[in-house]
Each structure stands twice: as structure tokens, then as C-alpha cells.
Amino acid sequence: MKEVSTKSVQVASTALNSDVQLLLRCFSTHRQVESNAFLHLDSASFLHTLECHRLTSLFYLTTKNNRFLTLPVKTLLEKRFSKKKLRMLTLVAELCRVSKQFKQATILTVALKGPLLSQQYYNDYTVRECNDLDILVKPSDVQAAYRILTDMGYGMTEVFWSSPKQRAVYHKTFHHYTMYNASNHVVIELHWRLYSSNQVDKGATENLWNNLRIQKLGGLEIQVLSGSDMFIYLCVHGSAHQWTRLFWVQDIVRIIKKEGGEFVGRAYQKSVGRGVARHVLEGCHLSHLLFDACLPLVIQEAIQSDKRIEQLAAMSIFAMNHVTASDNNPIASWGNLTLAQKRVVNHYRTSYHLGGGEALSSSFKRFFINPRYWRLYSFSDRFFVLNYFAAPFLWVYSVFTKNSE
Amino acid sequence: MTTFTRNQETISGQIDEELVMVDIERGSYFSLNSVATRIWELLETPLTIEGLCEKLMEEYEVSSEQCRIEVEKHLTKMQELGLVQIWS
User: Fold this and answer.
1) Residue numbers of A between 125 and 164 with CB closer than 8 Å to B
2) Is the separation of the CB atoms in B29 and B12 below 8 Å?
3) Do B15 and A82 touch (CB under 8 A)?
4) What pLDDT sits at residue A3?
5) Contact A126 B29 (CB under 8 A)
6) Model ipTM?
């Protein structure tokens, strides 16, 4: 079996900051954690890193019996773990409550990621942290589903449109509403498509309804994506976000471990037919580089023969390395500004490497169709096209006003 | 003899040594003490009160009379909370 080059593994290791390196060593079955690794730990920084990568619960479960973990860190982790577990139980219960209502209204739904992914690949529906519930419905059912959720106490977190044209453009460009329930603080993303851009994984949303499977939760049968559709979806989703959060990579690791090489090979072949092979290869590559996942030969060879995978992985490692700085004010310092610029450049480079000129164009277009700008200022529907010209100015205004507050 | 089993329409998770249950409709939590948690675990397969007592007496130092009293008390409460039901 060919191996991913040692150089790639070394580059990955040295490119990461010390908190992330330590985190990965704790998860690794091959790399040792030195006895003094935790003694010199900046606890606040490390715990913040865990939070940003949504790995607090998993890290706690992996290391709670590690005798080198200092007591103050262990105590803090334990408290956070208990809190997150309670939070996840709330989300699980809410998923059941909402699913029941949709079922009674004969609205077909698919639960994406979330507690059911956790149940299947982490053996516990509370271990994999999530901040919201993702529910997919057919486009024709979106308004009915929206009404059910509003009756249940949910409201849009933001209403992005104030005219029929704006609403139509929003539905065409984006893929979900974000809705919030103030009584239980649950956020639901109500999806009508898997992805925001129609250029990615064309046809995936239309075809998935024929391949769903059932998972049981709280006595209910809830539909989820088929194994390969979910694997591909997680890879496309992760790539679109440059794998900024390690828990997305951990999902791929878990699936590879549980389902095995043949499953991954088949999913990869499926992704080739759907034009998202690079998304899958990058996810697999990162899972091997960072978490030592064993990849089947077909994947290893495909990674080796596609030079863009290394470039994509390098940009993703940059993104995950700087995830703790993602809320930094870009105009507060030269360093912040440089980081923000690099992020923007990497975002578009990633789009290009993943999907070529078409994906880059689609990604670039979204800069000009940003509903957040419409709330600052928008032209009437009669002159809608002028909103595209106004976008860059409104972006500058929003950067300065947001970071001046 | 009455046989009891879990109500499958529940959401629960282990936090520290306690089992936390969530009422799906109300969204409220409640936790079970260690004895109730153990009864819940044992009722993964339907059991009578006698069956429960037999298993619990293997784990706890308790007389059969005291065990029965405690199990009946816990099962009554768990039925009220909708956690446990009679298996038919």
C-alpha cells in the first residue's frame, strides 16, 4: 500500500499551533503525549481552542482517565462536558418534538448531521457537539414547514428581504432559513437545498429523496441521508468551510473507521460522478494527516495524483490554525488585517481548486448578493440590479460599523 | 405477574453518575438517582418486580422485603413520569 508522503504529515504537524498539535496528539493512537505536555499548558487558550473546534466533549471523554491531565483543566473540562451534554439533550428532545409535528403534517423531512450523526458514529447522540439542528424539507414544503415552526415558537433570526424580488433572490441563492426559539434557545436551520450554490453537487438534493434511510430516536423514526450521501455531504460541507473546525474532520475519521475502505471507495466513485471528488479527497486526506485515518488504496492513489489536494489541505490547515482568531476585528491591527486578507484570498482559491472557474464565479457572485447589505440600504425591485453595484461600498461600511461598535 | 419495560419515547443521557431524562414535550429535565438509574438500565429487557429485585439484590446489600418496597416506590414514580410502562 502506498502511504501519503511523510513530508505531508510533517508539514501538517509543524503548520499547526501548539494547542492544536497537543489536541491531535491526545486523539492519536500512534503519537505519545509527554508527561509534561499539560504542565506548561495555557489552560484558557487550550480550552478556547477546544471550544472553537467543537471538540470539548470528545476531548474530555478521550482524556478523562489520562493521568497527565492536570486537575484544574480536568475539572473545567468536566463542568463544560456536563453543560454541553445537557444542551445536547435539549437539542435531541427538540428534534423529536419538531419531527413529530412535521410527521403529523405529512411533511417529509431529513435530519442532517446533528444528534443522529452523533448516534450513528459516536455511539451517543450527545457526544458530537452542535449548535443547531439542520432539517431539510422539499422546496414545495418550505412555507408549510416554516408555519409549523412559527406555531411552535420559532422566529427568523434575521429577515433578510423586504421585497418580493429580494425574497426570490434569497431563495435562489441560499439554502436555509435560520430560526430561533427564545423559550428553549434552540436554533433550527430549515433547509430546502443541501448547499447554497447550485453549482456544487448538482442534482444531489433532488436525488437524495429516493435513497433515505431511517434512524430511531426517542421512539420516532426519523429520515436521514443514505451512508454515501451523508459522507459526500459532510465532505462538501467541510470543504466549503475550509475544514476550519476539526470536528468536521473528526466526522470523516469516524465514518472511515466504522464503514471501512470499501464504503469510502464506493462513496468516492459516486462523488466523481457528481463532480465533488476533490471535496471527498480533501476530507480523506485531512483525516489521515491529522487523525491517522487509514485510507483505502484507491483514495491514496487519487490523492497522490491530484496536486491540488495538498494545496487545499494547506489552506484548510491555515484556516483551522486561526479559527480562534476568526472574530478578531480586521481593522484593529495590521496583523488582523493581513489575516483577514489571507482568509479572503484562501476562500476564493479554495473555491477555484474545488470547482474551477464556475465555482469561483459562483462564490464571487455571492459577495454581490449579500442580504445583509440590503438591510443597510437597498434599491427598489425596479432597480434591483443596482444592489450589485452598491455591494462593495456597503461591505466597507459594514466592516467599519461592525468593528467600531 | 406484571411486567415492566422502558418507555422508548424518552431521551436520556448519563451525566456524572446520574441519568438525566428529558421530557420531549415540555423540554424539562429530571435526573434519576443511582437506584432509579439502575432500574432503568435493567428494564432494557422487560422484567417483573421480582425479576428486578433478584438482580438488584445481587448488587446491593438489602433484604428482599426492603428491596421490594424500594422497587415498587421507584416504579410508581417512574410510571408517573412516563419513563416506565407496563409491558403487554
Assistant:
1) 125-126
2) no
3) yes
4) 46
5) no
6) 0.80
Phi/psi of residue A203, nearest 5 degrees:
85, -10
**Assigned domain for A243 exists:** yes
Q: Write the CA distances from A365 to A265, A343, A391, integer angstroms.
A: 34, 17, 11
Contact (CB<8Å) A93/B22: yes
Q: With an 8 Å Cβ cutoff, is A85 touching chain B? A: yes
pLDDT at A402 over 80: no
Specify whether A218 is located in the same domain as A316. Answer: yes
Q: Looking at CA atoms only, how far is residue B9 from chain A in angstroms?
A: 4
More confident residue, A74 or A114: A114
Residue whose cell numbers read 435530519: A111
A94 in contact with chain B, both atoms CB, cutoff 8 A: yes
The number of residues in chain B equals: 88
Question: Beta-carbon neighbour count of residue A279 at 10 Å?
Answer: 25
Q: Which of A137-146, A227-236, A341-350 has the lowest mean pLDDT?
A: A341-350
pLDDT at A235: 97
Q: Tens of pLDDT along A55-86?
A: 999 999 998 887 777 777 888 999 999 999 99
Out of B12, B22, B25, the one facing A90 most closely (by C-beta) is: B22
Instruction: Collect all residues of chain B within an 8 Å Cβ-Cβ radius of residue A184.
Output: 27
- The grid coordinates of residue B75 equal 416504579
User: A302-318, pLDDT tens digit by residue?
Assistant: 999 999 999 999 999 99
- The answer to whether A221 contacts chain B (CB < 8 Å) is no
CA angle at A84 for the pair A79 and A88, rounded to the nearest 5°: 155
- Predicted TM-score (pTM) of the model is 0.90
The total number of structural domains in chain A stands at 2
How many residues are listed for chain A in this entry?
A: 405
Residue A358 belongs to some domain of the structure: no
- Asked whether A298 and A304 are in contact (CB, 8 A), the reply is no
Provide the grid cell at A398. Answer: 459594514
- Residue A305: what are its φ and ψ, rounded to 5°? -90, -5
CATH code at A333? 3.30.460.40
Q: Which domains does chain B have, with CATH numbers?
A: 3-86 (3.90.930.60)
Among chain B residues, the shortest Cα distance to A185 is held by B27
Confidence band (pLDDT; 50, 70, 90) for A9? low
Nearest to B13 among A126, A183, A219 (CB): A126
Question: Between chains, do B11 and A82 touch, taking CB under 8 Å as contact?
Answer: no
Amino acid at A81: F
Contacts A183 to B, Cβ<8 Å = 27
**CB contact A34 to B (< 8 Å):** no
Q: In A, which residues are within 8 Å of B20 by CB distance?
A: 85-86, 89
